[in-house]
Each structure stands twice: as structure tokens, then as C-alpha cells.
Specification:
The chain is an alpha+beta fold and about 160 residues long. It is about 35% helix and about 35% strand. This is Lipoprotein.
Length: about 160
């Protein structure tokens, strides 16, 4: 579980427990005890769903990169633009790939979205197909969901094939 997910889940548990404590705790299994139990369960569920989402995105990125046959490392030929947000609230970044080969090539590029603390929030793979020899191609990488707070995009794996 990422640090962001742990902090969010911990904060949710603390808020819920503080609210219950303010309403009067009881060891008799009454309403206060039930509320605390439900709040803790809900917070754990939120943290679990966030971790599962990141694990799913990471697995999908790995699957897509593993499916590239004959790919060579192209990190030096790929650049990321400034991170932004689209009209649906998802983080975006323009990916530019320079084809330095002497034939048409395609690119598969992994983009890692991170929070200000460097915690991994999301992973996506974008493809840039059929870039002519000596030319550049672009694509936009979008996070799989809305990401909270300041987000940066980093270059993961980049393959030319």
C-alpha cells in the first residue's frame, strides 16, 4: 500500500474514531461501539480499494509492456511535457517520442503519476504508433482516475518497436 493510501486510510479512521469518542464511547457494544467498528471498517475498505486500483493499473501496464515484441529501450528518445488536468479531472501529460531509427517505428511508454511526496498514485501506458523515420510523434497519457493534490508525471519504461 502506498504512503498516500495509508495516510488517507489512517486519517479516515482517526476522524471516525474522534467523532465516536465525542459522542460517548461505550464498552457494552452499544451504538458508539457499533459506529466505531463501522467507521474503521469503511476506512479500511477505502484504503484497500485504492491499493487494489494501483495494483490493477500497475499489472495492466506490465502486461501491455510485456506484449511488445522486439522492443528496445527508448527512454533517451522520449520526453514528457508539463502535467495538467483534463475536463474530467484526470491528470494528463503529453508524451513525445523521437524516432531516431531509419524506418517507421512505434513506441510504448509507461508514465508514473506521483504525489508531492513521491508516492506512486497511478501507472499508465500510452502508445505512439507508426512514427516515421527521423520524425516525432505525440500522445497524451491520462491517469485512470482523478488524483488528489499536486501530481507529477515521470517516465517509466519506454520501448521502441
Amino acid at each position: 500500500m502506498s504512503g498516500q493510501v495509508r495516510r488517507s486510510a489512517t486519517a479516515a479512521v482517526l476522524v471516525a474514531l474522534t467523532a465516536v469518542a465525542g459522542s460517548g464511547c461505550s464498552d457494552d457494544g452499544g451504538p458508539a461501539s457499533d459506529a466505531a467498528s463501522k467507521a474503521a471498517s469503511a476506512a479500511a475498505s477505502v484504503g484497500s480499494r485504492a491499493a487494489e486500483g494501483l495494483a490493477s493499473a500497475t499489472a495492466e501496464a506490465k502486461r501491455r509492456l510485456d506484449s511488445v515484441k522486439g522492443g528496445v529501450d527508448a527512454k533517451k528518445d522520449v520526453k514528457l511535457g508539463a502535467t495538467g488536468t483534463d475536463d474530467r479531472g484526470r491528470s494528463t501529460v503529453t508524451v513525445t517520442a523521437d524516432n531516431t531509427a531509419d524506418t517507421k517505428k512505434s513506441f510504448a511508454v509507461q508514465v508514473d503519476f506521483r504525489d508531492a511526496g513521491g508516492n506512486l498514485l497511478d501507472v499508465v501506458v500510452v502508445t505512439i504508433p507508426d512514427v516515421a523515420a527521423g520524425k516525432s510523434g505525440t500522445a497524451t497519457a491520462r491517469s485512470t482516475h482523478k488524483l488528489a493534490g499536486p501530481v507529477t508525471a515521470g517516465l517509466g519504461t519506454a520501448l521502441r518497436y
